[in-house]
Amino acid sequence: MVKKLVPILSFLAILLLPGLGQAQDISAPKYSNEFLNIGVGARALGMGGVQSAIVRDATAGFWNPAGLVGLPKRHNAVYMHSELFAGIVKNDYGAYATNLDSTSALAFSIIRTGVDDIADTRRLQNEYGAIQYDSIEFFSVADYAFLASYARQSNLVRGLTLGANVKIIYRNVGKFANAWGFGIDAGAQLRRGNWNFGLVAKDITTTFTAWKLNPEELESTYLKDAESFNANSIEVTLPRLILGVGRSFQFANRFSALVSTDLEVTTDGKRNTLLSSGVVSVDPRVGMEIGYANAVFLRGGLNNVQQVEDFNGKSSWKVQPNFGVGVATHGLQLDLALSKVADNSQVSSVIVSLAYSFD
Q1: What number of other Cβ atoms are within 10 A of residue 148's Cβ?
Q2: Which of 85, 151, 313, 346 would you call most buried, defined as having the most Cβ atoms within 10 angstroms of its Cβ?
Q3: Residue from 242, 257, 273, 287 nearest 48 by CA
Q4: Looking at domain 2-358, which of 2.40.30.10, 2.40.160.40, 3.30.470.20, 1.10.10.10 is its CATH number?
């Protein structure tokens, strides 16, 4: 089995090499297209985003496309809504997945993260200095991602599934600027009894997002020299690897448990993570789910380990806890997650997901 896995891992490594080379030659932003790293699905976020090895529903199109092979029923649809920063940022996600046959599956996903009804007060005063409230205009800042995912069971290794997705990114800042981007993710899952292993390579060829600014809206307000205005730019998202392992348990007839962990490796330089260097950073996370009769679920997870400095200059390590619950019946599943729980126990993000599976 190890000999058969070597070519697959080598292939993923070859795909990553162009991006790793560009990491040294191109000055890329460290948090490019960060809206895609918020995560989707209340079940996943309640477990701290630990999904690469265990995901088995339509959200696999986002977390690990290889997990699409293993849908409980032929069709699966998921919708999620969450609000961040006291409801200022709206995060919506929808996905549909279907089994093409016993060995392959297809999924389509859409993500929108945005802030709506932002007031543009640049023309609040007229040429005489009088206030004109009817001159206030409103606009939205939103990021979109459209994903088409495909997965297939491997004929080389028993229990191995492979998947990939193509993602199209559209970002809009009202009438001031917009951008289009394109990227590819790939993943693999290996299932051995109660053990599950996952590998995901996101942005394997690097993702390029081309920005186009509107000079007519920006030059008169922010710039005096029109010739120095650069209306076009390219934002680069460098590759990242996610390795995961999970194990399921069955006990006391109707009780079950699932424990999993992920290691996320970014290639855009030093980040505030548990392990970091000038080239790569490693961010670990762990999650757990306890179920009763496959109908009621209790979840928890830890992620986002960071070193935080207080007002006195003293540094300490902090970890983000996540909690979640879920109920399922007749193919319908409702999940709730509480994420980004602060030290004062105030919840800054509530995630709700509704999923339906049918034949």
Answers
A1: 15
A2: 151
A3: 287
A4: 2.40.160.40
Q: Which of 255, 256, 254, 274 is nearest to 266 (CA)?
A: 274
Q: How far apart are CA 21 and CA 210, in angstroms?
A: 20
Check residue 347 and give its pLDDT: 52
DSSP state of 160: E
Task: Name the CA dihedral angle for 134, 135, 141, 147, rounded to a multiple of 10 degrees.
Answer: 80
Give the contacts of 86 (CB within 8 A, at least 6 positions apart).
348
Residue 141: strand pairing partners = 115, 173
List C-alpha distances in Å: 83 to 29, 93, 163, 340, 351.
Answer: 25, 12, 30, 12, 7
Task: Give the global pTM.
Answer: 0.85
Alpha-helix residue ranges (DSSP H) falling in the chain: 2-25, 42-46, 60-63, 215-222
Which residues does 134 contact at the CB level (< 8 Å), separation at least 6? Answer: none
* Rounded (5°) CA angle 166-170-176: 165
Q: For 251-302, write each residue's pLDDT tens digit.
A: 888 999 999 999 999 988 888 888 888 888 999 999 999 999 999 999 999 9
Assigned token pair, 344: 């004062």
C-alpha distances in angstroms, 235 versus 12, 171, 203, 214, 249?
A: 23, 12, 13, 17, 44
- Give dist(CA 90, CA 112) in Å, integer: 8
Report the distance separating Cα 75 and Cα 355, nearest Å: 11
Residue 31 identity (one-letter amino acid) = Y
- List, as one string, the DSSP characters of 265-296: EE-SS--SSSEE-SS-EEEEEEEEEEEETTTE
